[in-house]
Amino acid sequence: MPHDGLIAWCFLVGLACGGPPTSDSGIGETSSIGETSSIDGSEATVGASTGGETEDTSRGMESTRTGSATVGTSESTDASGEGFASHHGSSGEPGSGSASSDPASSSEASASDDASTAASNTDGIDPCSQQAALTVATFNIRYDAGGPQSASSPNGWENTSAPRRDMVVTLIEGMDPDILGVQEALANQVDDLVEALPQYGFVGVGRDDGLEAGEYAGIFYRRDRFVLQDEGHFWLSDTPEVPGTVFPGSGSIRMATWIRVSDRRSTRELFVLNTHWDNVSQSSRVASGELIRARLETLSAGDPIVLTGDLNENETGAGILVLTAPSTSESLVDGYRQTFPEPEIDEATYHGFEGTTVGSRIDYILHDARLMTTDAAIRRDDVAGSYPSDHFPVTSRLVWSQGEEGLACQ
């Protein structure tokens, strides 16, 4: 078949030609349950797990499907002038919603700091105004292979000449998100981001043990805007409260992290969930969608919902349709597709460090009807042909769809 015809055919059937498979086959991840695959030709062994993919969103961006820039290195500053709130590796009762079982933990202390600051710094502006808009990003940062590879590999997190760590930090600073969901971050990567981004609070645990082992599907939130009200996490399995458990057929341990925050600007409450679905089993992805759908109804407590994640399938996948199919009023909206209703052939978010654009998205920002996406982008930033991750981050600009007393925003 001619090349042009092949691309058109792949697009019509929803395949990411030249990109990773999105059905029951691996997408360049190291399985934590028996098998090891490789993206860059080298096997990785990271405790019992590894994973993923990414997307992005930009503050004040013009309407554009994709954005790119040359990423440099820069020092971050703390916009709030306060210390960093880190809920890193605090297990408490997994999935219970408590920050930690230890009342003296940094989780509870930092949440208290956020709350005390908010008490004297609540703007209370009109939710319909542009000042109340939210910038949300999702970014699979690609796990750090560790060992000598981390410094010697061209795509190493700590590469001696062009560390991915610095590229990831600079890209996040450039996106300037209010909320950021990250996938595949290992504990040392979380520590690096925590240190480099003191303007953000962080909530997350390692997926292997509910503490610090394995990948995190964590959430960064801007401390000068949000007050952390509650947090939790659960595993994508038949026993969601048990760390390290999986649905049958899964290739890796998978989990979700969530937070409930108060927005100082609009005085609204917001529920945010970040997750990373299995790359091997479609039945696992469907079960993950069903579990998350059920959990959203109870954990969100009626608050507006934002979901970020590497879902490892395109927008017509059976798992995503559990969340987005317009069968009920609780269905979530694909923010990127709300902005760009017509699918294009160059929407790939996974690119395997090659910068490939042809293909479908597997990284998403979803939300309920109380929010609306007015702009979105797939960020394709690079440094002289080197990329911060094997995923492109995705960003969305969200506005509230209702103002005071439930009246529709104009």
Describe what you observe in this structure.
The protein has 410 residues and is an alpha/beta fold. It has one domain: Endonuclease/exonuclease/phosphatase (Deoxyribonuclease I, Chain A, 4-Layer Sandwich), CATH 3.60.10. It contains eight helices and 14 strands. β9, α6 and β10 (305-310) form a beta-alpha-beta unit. α6 packs parallel to α7 (318-324).
| Residue windows where pLDDT falls under 50 for at least 5 positions | 1-28, 30-63, 70-85, 91-109, 116-121
Number of strands: 14
- Overall number of domains: 1
Which structural category fits the helices and strands?
A: alpha/beta
Approximately how much helix is present in the residues?
10-25%
In what order do the strands lie side by side in the largest sheet? 1-13-14-3-4-6-5-2
Name some characteristics of this structure.
8 helices; disordered N terminus; 8-stranded mixed beta sheet; 410 residues; Deoxyribonuclease I, Chain A; alpha/beta; 14 strands
How do you describe this structure in short?
The protein has about 400 residues and is α/β, with parallel strands linked by helices. The chain is about 20% helix and about 20% strand. It has helices at about 5-10, 105-120, 145-150, 165-175, 185-195, 280-300, 320-325, 335-340, and strands spanning about 65, 85-90, 135-140, 180-185, 200-205, 220, 225-235, 255-265, 270-275, 305-310, 335, 365, 370-380, 395-400.
List the helices and strands and how they pair.
Blueprint: H1 3-12, E1 66-67, E2 86-88, H2 106-119, E3 134-140, H3 147-152, H4 164-175, E4 179-183, H5 187-196, E5 200-204, E6 219-222, E7 226-235, E8 255-263, E9 269-276, H6 282-299, E10 305-310, H7 318-324, E11 333-334, H8 335-339, E12 363-367, E13 371-379, E14 394-400
Parallel strand pairs: 1-13, 2-5, 3-4, 9-10
Antiparallel strand pairs: 3-14, 4-6, 5-6, 7-8, 8-9, 10-12, 11-12, 13-14
Helix pairs in contact: 6-7
